[in-house]
Amino acid sequence: MHGNTSQGVIAWFARNSVAANLLMILILVAGISSLLNIRIEGFPQIPPNNVTIKVDYSSGSAKSAEEGIAVKIEESLQGVEGIKTIQSTSNGEGVTVTVTKSSGYDLDILYRDIKTKVDSISTLPKRAERPVISREIELEGVMTINLFGDVADRVLQEYAEDLRGKLLKNAEIQRVDYIGRKSPEISIEVDEAQLQALGLSMEEIASKVNAASVTDTGGELLGPDGKLTIKTDQQRYDAKEFSTIAIKQTVDGQRIRLADIATVKDDFANKNNLTRYNGQSSVGLKVKMYGKSNITRVAEAVKRIVGAYQETLPAGVRVELWNDRSKPIKDRLSLLLDNSVQGIAMVIALLALFLNVRVAFWVGVGLPVIFAGAVTLMGDSLFGLTLNELTTFGFIIALGIVVDDAVVIGESIYDEREKYGATLQATISGANKVATPTTFGVLTTMVAFLAMTLIEGDLGKIFAQFAYAAAFCLLFSLIESKLILPSHLAHLKMSSGSENHGFFSFWNRLQSRVTTGLKRFTYDMYKPFLGVVLRYRYAALAIFVSVLIFVVGLLFSGNIKSVFFPEISADFVTVELVFEDDAGYGLVQREALTIEKLSDELNQQLVDEFALSKAPIQHLLVVTSDNAVTITAGLSANNQRPFTASELAERWQFMVPPLEGVARVSFLADMITDKAISIELRSKDNQTIDSAGKALIKKLELFNGVSGIKSGLKAAQVQVDLALKPEGMAMGLTTSGLLKQVRLAYQGYEIQRLQKGENEVKVKLQYPVKKRQSLDDLQYARIRLANGKVVPLSTVADISTKYVATSIERINQSRVNVITADVNKALISPSEIINSLDEGLFKQLKANHQDLEIVISGQQQQEAEVTQSFKGAFIVAAIVIYALLAIPLKSYLQPFVIMCAIPFGIVGALLGHWLHGVPISLLSLFGILALSGVVVNDSLLLISQYNRERTIGLSVTDALLASGAGRMRAILLTSTTTYAGLAPLLAETSPQAQFLIPAAISMGYGILFATIITLVLIPAIVMLSEDLVSLTGSKKSNAETRNRVDLAL
């Protein structure tokens, strides 16, 4: 045994089994407590980044809104700290400005600064509403509820309102939004002919209605015995009540009521919007939760309430739950848990096979302790992480790694007890023998994982969560392997008579054969082979470098594909239609129903073609607005159909004929909504971004694999201009007075607003619909003069038409045209397209348009941000890893030798992607970064062993042969257990696991290849270093060598 090992914290815990067991119990209890209270979510939400400023301004002109509001807000925000981009949309109804914060800046501080600046603007148009400033909040969809049936929309809406109220009474449910809800309105339509016959005007009608529908107080009666409030409550609440309002009394005493001269009805403001679910009229509810809610609890509460409510519905009205986001989360967490269990079983089996059943058992017991400790740190009271797909994946990644430390400790203790007897001193000696390299090995791995938290961008921050989970596991693996495991192994019996029969007898024979086989392999095959490698070390190095160059060449030649983010097929398809602004509601509804009908045909085709037991499109929600349609198709489970959502969407889109009046159409089936190609063309001049956009679209159409190309510029819409004639001026009219009368007739006059239940109901006065549909109607519109006479509009004003922009987009004070496109990543990568454009078309466009600015956004912008910060994180990790290796080795040169394993580990990761046909992606890079810390561990063990062999006087060659053979079992065990922990996930075919597989490939194959590097290449590099030392004449005395635990090469 080596030196005095009776002192220190390891020895103290090894002797005091009560302390070790109490520590273990404390960690387990804390972990279980945290697990019971930890929040569960699916894919982690992107943290809020935006502040929105909304200003309503019914000018009818996008340009007026831009110049009067958007430009002024943008100018006011110049110089405000923490702003990354300012994006605005101006149209005839107002302006929306979205401010995105810089990475790492506090959103609350930015919100306060923006509010201060915007509130101080005093030059906004008079008719503009007060700016509404809001900060983005963290919301996650839970599920969708649809009430549907062949009944009136009003009936469905009443049931939806009632159900929403019941849902919000539950403490778990915090937010429920309507889908397709129509805003109630009391409509009063008056014909101009009726007004003229009675000598009335629209203003007079509005005044009469307003005066008759009122609730107000008239003071108080104060007496000695108390007071009485004087009040009138004549508020009208529905069309029937408003119809009875007296408007005029004739000379013969007859009272003319509102119903006599107008059509009064309970109506909806957006009555032409359509909402359908599975082919029937519907009103929907979308249940959402805030950041700190638990999705499974919310979903359970919703199901319980809706289930009870369903029993109360009458015949003809049904309610259905779908798009339950808690289900895929449960499925994915269950999948990862199953993979974890399989991985643990494989790890323990390998340990039992190579070491000892009891050693394997106690190493396995450490795993729940490690995971419990990690969950404790994840709790809200500490780091506030959730149990989600990524943190669970962090546990799987850590599964094979955390046992490495325990395996090395256990193997060393087992070896010492075999040599020197099953004593406490042998246990302590075995643990201390490898305590330093294993501690620093774990620290290097933690550094590699934690370096991921330095990666910028939303996706970088989200995917760094699995790094935290893995790092927490590694931290507790240090505690468990150094303080708890030695205490358990101190009482380990090397053999037992009870193990000489039955299963144990079989297992002992199997273990004996494995041990014998490993020894034969080590001493009869590996050691002679290593001797040859050391003899021909230059040739060996050349071979490995050639492999490195070849594999890297596969990447750059495109044989190994690379994408920023792999395509992840969702369990739904979203169809979006955007119409030209002048499209009528009838056209919008007709084309929406066309897509709906095609979904039925597609369902039948797929059922017949693949002999499916159920239709793949299970739910179909159609929602229309003034000029857009959104159709959401919920699909059957992935294991119930032999095609992906993307393939279904592609086939559905192929069936769609040319659609009238549609500016843009898209079929989306990817969980990542950012477009693969998104290019911003910025300029002060609209003509510049228009012509540049057309040239770019034409070029993109030439690329194979590019589809769904869209321009952000909306087509110009016809606008009607009024100009007051001199005749009109002579009659006493002004431009503003003329426009006021026209607006009152055609846009309507909001007489009052009243509260009816949860609804705010507008009472609106206007011309009948049939009188405000065409230019002819407008020309003959009646304009009232100051003397009470009425004349046609065309006699007092010139009426003309022109094309104007209906919407103006701006980014950072320039007008912008955003060109977007989808890319089939199996055919071409988005980066290849951008590189090609950068070398050709972009240069031409900039030469032709001096003020044109081209900005790459979307996925490519995120890729650039992540790639840049990834390089920085990798450098930081490499520097810290070097320091952590140099400290225990007490050498400046040896860490470089150990770190040679990193690039060759990356070679293994690349080969793994090639073998699986999986492209290198962001997730692969995360795995590679983690790999850089893991692969040095075995090399550190080997070099530490080599240094010990040198201190006892062995030559370089003999020391390398002895250390390679001596550490063979430990190195094989750490590598195979790490791979075994990942193997079930690598073999997984379910869609839920596909986005995790690239990182698992990087880790698993990188570690396997690094094992060969550790056992073969690292010894060769050590010999090469000795050659270099001999050539430079740098030699150390034998005495100095013996006095140093770790010898500089």
TrEMBL record:
UniProt keyword Transmembrane helix present:
yes
Instruction: List, in alphabetical order, the Gene Ontology terms for molecular function in this entry.
Output: xenobiotic transmembrane transporter activity
Residue ranges annotated as transmembrane are 18-38, 335-354, 360-378, 390-414, 434-455, 462-479, 536-556, 870-889, 895-915, 922-946, 999-1022
Keywords assigned: Membrane, Transmembrane, Transmembrane helix
The family database entries (Pfam families) matched by this protein are listed as:
ACR_tran
Q: Name one GO cellular component term.
A: plasma membrane
* First and last residue of the signal peptide: none
SUPFAM superfamilies, sorted: Multidrug efflux transporter AcrB pore domain, PN1, PN2, PC1 and PC2 subdomains (SSF82693), Multidrug efflux transporter AcrB TolC docking domain, DN and DC subdomains (SSF82714), Multidrug efflux transporter AcrB transmembrane domain (SSF82866)
Q: What is this protein called?
A: Efflux RND transporter permease subunit
Q: Which organism is it from?
A: Photobacterium chitinilyticum
Q: What is the lineage of its organism?
A: Bacteria, Pseudomonadati, Pseudomonadota, Gammaproteobacteria, Vibrionales
